[in-house]
Amino acid sequence: MAVFEGRLDRTKDLRxxxxxxxxxxxxxxxxxxxxxxxxxxxxxxxxxxxxxxxxAWVPGCFDMPVVAYRMALxxxxxxxxxxxAVIKGQTPHxxxxxKKVSDGIAQVMMxxxxxxxxxxxxTDTMQQALERAGIKENKGWSFGMDAIEMASxxxxxxxxxxxxxxxxxxxxxxxxxxxxxx
Length: 182
Ligand code: INI
Prior knowledge:
By secondary structure, this protein is of the alpha/beta class. The protein has helices at about 25-40, 65-75, 95-110, 125-130, 140-155, and strands spanning about 15-20, 55-60, 80-85, 115-125.
């Protein structure tokens, strides 16, 4: 029997990209700060000179999947963390944005094999978002830990058996993902 699980205490060789939405930056700045704090306290270098963590900014959550996809295709990162906040307003916009970002991020993960943390708050009110971004708790902290756990878990899984899908591989044996359909 084999049991596979991620570890939180071996972060020296991990690399992450954090993609943050500027929309609702009152919330996303707080998520990012807590996420960086969590990575730092688990031993990662999050400084401006860091070789371990890179940062990308997108206008809003809807724009995240394409940037996460490009980051994943670089094969530079063990996990990607997407941070955003979609807050319900008077129009159905919330539903379009929240569905697209959740579906898009799931697709990026499945089509590239790179873990992508869904660090997007979806709330009815700004108050609920604030409660999850610092007033009661800060989910940014756990999004950082989720990234470490998933990156570490994927590294421990048995090697891929690609069978007759070798046409999907590069000459180095890496999987070539299909184009995403989002
Ligand atoms: N983007 C968000 O990140 N959160 C929101 O709540 C939001 N709402 O409600 O409109 C939002 N919209 C912008 C969208 O993500 C894109 O940036 C924009 O449509 C340009 O592609």
